[in-house]
Structure prediction request, 817 residues.
Amino acid sequence: MIHLTTLGSVRIGTTDGPLSSATGQQAKRLALLSYLAIARPRGAHRRDTILGLLWPELDHERSRSALRQALHGLRKTLGAEAVISRGTELIELDPGVVSCDLHSLEVASGAGDASVVLDLYRGEMLAGLFIADAPAFEHWVDSERARVNALVLEASWQVAEGGGSKATVANVLRGVRAAMALSRSDEAALRRGMRLLSNAGATIEALALHDRFIAEMRREYDVEPSAETTMLADELRRSRREVPIVAKLLTNPPRAAIATVIMPEQPPPATARPNHRRYRIAAAVGVAIVLVGVAAELAPSAESELDPRQVSVMQFTADGPALDSIAHRLTVETRATLSSLDGMMVLADNRSSVARAGTIVRGRLTRDDDAVELRAELVDARTGKIKRTVISHAASQEMVSAIAAKFNDRIAAALSASLYPGWGSSLSQPPSYRGYQLFVDGMRRIRAEDHDGAVAAFRQAFSEDSTFTIAAIVGGIQLYHAGRFVAADSIVRSILPRRAQLPPADERLLEWLARSLRGDRIGARAAMQSVVALAPGSDLASLQLAIDNVETARPSEALAALDNISSDAEFGEGWLGYWTTRAEALHLMGEHERELVTVRSARMSHPELGALAGYELRALAALGRVDEVMRTAESSAYRTADPIVTLRVVAMELAAHGYRSESITLLQRLRAEQVSLPTSSRVSISAIASKARTLYLLDARDPAKSLYDSLLREIPDCSTCIGALGVLAARSGDRTAAEGYERRLAGSSKPFQFGRRLQLRARIAASLGDTARATTLLTAAYADGLEFDILTHADRDLSAIRPDSLYRVFAGAHKSR
Prediction:
C-alpha cells in the first residue's frame, strides 16, 4: 500500500522531502495524483475534465499527450497497477494500492471523532503546490482547502468545548489553538476561545492568546481590536466578581456618565494612542465620508483646515421615548467602535468639540409599525455635505440589539474607506470593516511586491460580499500583472453582466482590465485616465496611468501623471515602480542627463531600492560614458537582484548608441561569468535560456543555436526559442529554415500573446531583408497589444524598420477606441 500525504507538505510514501516544491512536469504529475485521490465524487474521473484543469493552455492533441506522459510518470513512480484506465475516457486510482490521509480525516470527521481529526491534520491541504497557467486547478484547490479547513475548525471547537464530556484544560488549549490557527483574523473566534479558556480556569492563557492575536493584527493589518474584544480582555484582567464600568454604561447609559467617562471634554494627548498604521492616511484627501446631516451653522468655511480623523459622534436621536434608551446605547457603541479604529480621534459631544471635528457622525432611529430603521450619515464638517449614509433595518424594537454590531461595523467601514487616499464615493464601498481591512491588506501586499498575497486578500474581500466589486477588479489587475491572464479574464467575465450597476470608477477599472486583456493598450490607457479623473487622490491609479503612458509612447504625459502623486504617498517616491517609470519616461524622451540625476537622487534617498543601480548604468550607457559604465559594472553596489539581465540591457543600450565594440566587450565578460557559474546554477532551464540570449546578442550563431535547440526539445512551444532560431537561420543565409520557423510561429493560436509572436516573426522577416513584411507584422503586433518598450530602440533585429517611429505612426492612427 502506498500512502499519499496531502495535509501539510505533500509526500508519497516515506519520501525524504516534500514534493510540493516540484516544478514543471513533476508538479503537474503531483497535481494529477492529488486530484485523482481527492476530487469528489471519489472514483473515476473524466480525462476531459482533467485536461481543462491542468493543461488549459494546450490544444486538444497536445494536452492529451501531456496527460499520457503524466500518467506514464505516475505509473513509473507508484507501480503500473496504481492508476487504472477505464475505457478511453475515465481514470482512477486503485484504492487497494493508494491510500490518502485526507480520506482518513473525512472518516473521523463523519464519525464525530474530533480528536482524531486534529491528529491527522498536519497543515493546509496541498501546501505550497502551485501550477502556473492552471487557474481552474487553483480554484479547485482553494475550494477543497476551504472545505477541509471547515471540517478541522468544527473539530477544533468540539475538542475545546469537551465534545460531550468535561473539557480538560489541555483539551481546551489544544482545541482553541487549532481553531485560532484557522481563524487568524477572526475576533469573534478569539473571544470564543478566550471565554472557553477562562471558564476552564486558564485565564492567563486566555490573555496571552489575546495579546498574541492583537499584536499580529497590528503587524499584519495595521488595526486595533474592536471595543468588544478590549472589553472582554479588561474583564478577564479584573476580578470576575467586579461588574465592569463600561458594561454598566452599556446596560443603562446615564448621559452624565457617558460625557465624563467615555467622552472627555478635551481630546487625549497624541501619545495616548500610539499609531500602529503603516499606511499613511492623507489628511488632505478631500473625499472624507462623514455621518448624518449637520446643520449649516455647524459647518466651518471651506477654507478652514480640519482633520477628518477627528470625529464627533453626536447623540443619536429617536422618534419616540420607547427608543430613547436604545439610541443612547447605540451612540455609546458607535463611539466605542470608531475609537477602536487606528488613527481616529473621537471627540466629546459638545459644541466646542464639533467645531474641532473634521467629521461629524449623527444618527436617528425611526419606527415604522413594529420595524425600526437605523440611519447614520457621514458629514464632511468642512462643507456640511453628506458624503455617505448607512441604513439598517430591524424587524422589531427587540431586534435592534441583534443588528447594532453590524450597523456599527458598516459605519466603521464607510468612515475608514473615506480616509483611504483616492477612495472617494466613485468606488464601490466596503460592506464591512473586515472587507475594508482585507482590501487595505491587499494594497499593502502590492506595496511589498507580494502579488500572490495581494490576490488572495482581494479575493477574500470580494467573497465577504459580492457587491464589493472593486476588490475583485483590483485583484484581477494584479493577476494580469502577474501574467495569470486566464484567471484575470474569468474575473472580467464574472463582473461584466452587472457592469451597468457598477460605481463609475469600478466600471472604468473593469474596462481597463478588459481592454488590457484584449491587447488594446491605447483604449486601456484612456480608461485609466478616466479613473484618475474620478479618483484624483489615488496614487496607484496615477502610477498605472504613468506606466500606460510609457507603454503607449507618451513619456511627457507619464511624467505629468507621476507629478500628481504626493511624495509621501504609498505608491509615491518610496516605491520602486514610481522611480523606474520616471526613469523610463525620461529615457524615452532622450533626456539622459536628467534621467541620470533623477536615478542617482532616488538611490541616495532610497538605498533599499537596489534595482535602480541598473537604471543608473543604462543612463550612463545612453550618455556614452563608457569608461564609467565598464568600471562601475564591476562594483558590488551596482549588482541588482538579476545582474546578468542588468548587464545585458546595458550592453544593448551601448550598442544602440553606437558603442558596438564596448557592447561586445561587456557581453563577452558576461559570457565568461555565466560559464564560470557552479554546475548546479548552469543546468536549469532559465540558466540555459539566459546563456543562449547572451550568445544570441554576441551573434555566436552555432553555440546559440545549439542551446536554443535544446530548449525547444524541453519546451516545444517556446516561442522565444523559435524566433531566435529563425533570426539565426536568416543571419546564416538559410532562408528556407528561417521561413519554416516563421510559419511555425504563425501556426500558434495561443491566447494572450499580446503581439509577441508577431514581433518575433517581424524580426525574422527583417533579418531576411523583407522590410515591408516586417513593417506589416510589427504594426499588427502593436495592434495585438505589444507595448512600446523601453528597449524597442535597442532591438538590433528591427533597427532597419525603425520600430519607435513605426509605433508612433500606429498610435497616431489609433488615438482612441
Residues 15-22, 239-304 have pLDDT under 50 and may be disordered.
